[in-house]
Design a protein that fits this description.
By secondary structure, the chain is mostly helical. The protein has helices at 8-25, 37-44, 48-60, 79-103, 106-125, 128-145, 149-167, 173-190, 195-216, and strands at 64-66, 72-74.
């Protein structure tokens, strides 16, 4: 962030922003949900000032939107808007898979495999909140493997915005297990080092995901 964030208030606002982003991306805070400044201040043990700053940051990113007089809420999208976002996300994720296959380092592979191991564990346990967070970590590790911070930021932004909608596609433990298994199939293609196969594998993965999202929303 910029230099103004070096203040204690800036650091607190950043921490609140990061935690709320994680909750929204993992679907723990649903689309349309109102964020109450007073309740959030109590949750984080702070005054309303850094909470208000964190919410303003999220609004600037398009993650939150102004509601009525009751304050900010998680952004909502029509099915058409959601389809357009997934169309863009589809290609960005495919690019990430392509570049990851080309540029994969031992460190990046280790991070991806650790995230996938957590996906597998939480899926088998039927731990939906745990799986949602592990799934985010899995995709973020793929974005980092591109070694391109600009692509990382763009891809991450789409995941934040669509998080509440993607979370609804997991209705049962079987859905979690199927998702984790699809990760294994995807990773086999990425680890093959064939960038075309990796990109096509991600397109297949994202198409299946989008169809489940539309069915659930």
């Amino acid at each position: 962030m910029d230099g103004k964030d070096a203040s204690p208030r800036g650091s607190t606002a950043q921490r609140i922003e990061a935690e709320l982003l994680e909750d929204i991306a993992a679907g723990q805070i649903e689309a349309g949900a109102r964020l109450d400044e007073t309740k959030l201040a109590a949750r984080f043990g702070v005054s309303r000032t850094p909470v208000r700053e964190a919410l303003s940051r999220l609004a600037a990113q398009g993650v939150l939107e102004s509601g009525d007089r009751r304050g900010m809420r998680v952004a909502q999208y029509t099915r058409e808007e959601l389809a357009q976002m997934f169309e863009a996300m589809h290609e960005i994720e495919a690019l990430c898979a392509r570049l990851a296959a080309q540029r994969l380092t031992l460190l990046a592979r280790s991070e991806i495999e650790a995230a996938q191991a957590e996906c597998t564990r939480t899926a088998r346990d039927g731990d939906l909140p745990g799986y949602l967070r592990a799934n985010e970590a899995f995709h973020l590790s793929l974005y980092r493997a591109t070694e391109n911070p600009y692509i990382f930021d763009i891809a991450s932004d789409f995941r934040r915005r669509t998080g509440p909608f993607r979370a609804k596609k997991f209705a049962a433990t079987g859905d979690l297990i199927a998702s984790a298994q699809s990760h294994e199939e995807l990773l086999a293609k990425i680890f093959s080092a064939d960038s075309n196969i990796a990109a096509e594998g991600m397109r297949e993965h994202m198409t299946a995901s989008f169809m489940r999202v539309l069915a659930a929303n």
